Amino acid sequence: MKPKPLVRAAQYVALLVVVVVFTAPTLWMLLGVFKRNVEHRAHPPVLIPSDPIGAASDTIRFAFEGSPVPLDQVFVNSLVVALGTVVVTLLVGTTAAYSFARFRTGGGSLPFFILTLRMAPPIAVALPFFLVFRVLGLLDSQLGLIIAYTTFNLPLVIWLLRSFFRELDPSMEEAALVDGASRWQSLRHIALPLAIPAIASTGLLVFIFSWNEFFFATLLTSSDGRTIPALLPLFLPRSISAGQPLGASFFIAAVSAVPMIILVLFLQRYLIRGLSLGAAKE
Amino acid sequence: MQQAVGARTIESRRTPWLMVLPALLLILAINIVPLVYSTVLAFFQWNLIQAATPPRFIGIDNFIRLITRDPQFISATLNTGIMVVATVAVQTVLGVAVALLLDQKLRFTGVATTLLLIPLALAPAVVGLLFSSLFNSTLGPVNYLLNAIGLPAPSWLGDAKWALASVIIVDTWQWTPFMILLTLAGLRSLNPEPIEAALVDGASAWQRFRYVKLPMLLPVLTVAMLLRAIDSFRTFDLVFLLTFGGPGTSSTTMSFYGFKVGLQNFDIGRASAIAFLMVQVFIIFVLLFYSRSKDQL
């Protein structure tokens, strides 16, 4: 039963609207890097900048010179904190996930209890962190943020990898155990190699969530330790002095966003699986 | 030999716990201890600005003051409630509708599905920044378009009537793709037989959706809605960048108010009390989530 041509046409129009609505704001961000201030203020909105190269180079120069913390340092902070969180959570989380999946360690409710920590309101741990970090000198440090990001990413890693290990056929590992291998050996030599893709995807998710994190970054850093998202408010039009390039905020936003967009295109459906905590199977 | 086997059994009985031990210790140190600390602080009066005054136990005074003498807290609670209900409702309806569209045999749906991932890749802070430009009342393209088609163009972020609505709209922009893609995955994994049977029996497209597909989708949709509710309940980033809670407290959420009290006024006790109340609500969400998701996850 084929739909009427009119219905089909309406469906295509709706599809076009959906695509435009959900992509235009991102394009607006990229476009903003290439516009002069008059073009930012122009009516109708400027869609083809007159001097894209010149405007972009002024914008980028101001972003570097006007940043209260050197921009390259902010970028490095974001990178170190995100990678550090990935390493810590995968290192600690993989064996735990394996144990929960294969041996039902702690019964069925312990993994679920851990999962809930992923979703808890961050303010409940952020205040204690602020107080303790103040004393320990961890405010404004990369290590402090890695600790904070581990609180919500470790539960996610354990949960996602547990569901992955459960889908893995255990017969090879059982055979290895019968042949005298230890549980560590069967994890190391049989399960782990098969889990590499899932571990890599989970690591990418953790990287994205850490890179994008704003709440802890705003609360626990003030200058040297700032990450890219926490720098954004300082480049809002209301925060910069008149005459400075308005495109600077779009540039910082793009530096934050473009690498993540590329990663997400790699992850594809695994992103939805991760965001839904496994409710959407691939 | 006997001994060796005995040692091995003990070793293998211990191994599963050894494998989870580092994770459990870490979680204890960085999740549980801070949560307990925060809970204890909720019953103390402690302001960091008065550095000389040490924390003082005051029982449930922080809570009494929040509920009876703090209109800003009441307003933040109401705003958060509106935010949760509105975002979940709107995003679910839109998400299912667009998923049904993408499930038609149209061309370009593959490309569209991929493009829908982009909003999910962005930091909420980036999204907030983007929309503070798009929603600018005089210079923004949104109001330009509204004017062009003759609709009223409100001062989105600067008008107390619209500020919270703006936050909801922006959250909807970012998270509807999640509902779309999740529903689409659900639709594509449905058992086709009941749908075909309904088709043979002459059910209309709406009837096939309402009485066949929707009931089958409901379990996964419920999990997704609860996840969205939990996430929406703690909204902070968007508020910070779009409206900073204003004008007045018109778009202040509980998370944002807790931040203001705790880290701008440094009233640690009262902020911890807000966090405590948020955790209690969160526990209700989690219990719902657990009962709904046991078979899904």
Give the mean pLDDT of chain A.
92
Helix fraction bin of chain B: over 70%
Which consecutive residue ranges of chain A, at least 5 long each, have pLDDT under 50? none
Strand order of the largest sheet of chain B: 1-2
Alpha plus pi helix count of chain A:
13
Q: Quaternary arrangement of the chains shown?
A: heterodimer
The rounded Rg of chain A comes to 23 Å
Helix and strand content put the structural class of chain B at mainly alpha
Question: How widely separated are the two ends of chain A?
Answer: 29 Å
Total strands of chain A? 0
Which descriptor suits the 3D outline of chain A?
Answer: globular
What series of H and E elements makes up the topology of chain A?
HHHHHHHHHHHHH
Output the keywords.
heterodimer; A: 282 residues; mainly alpha; B: 297 residues; two-stranded antiparallel sheet; 13 helices; 2 strands; globular; disordered N terminus
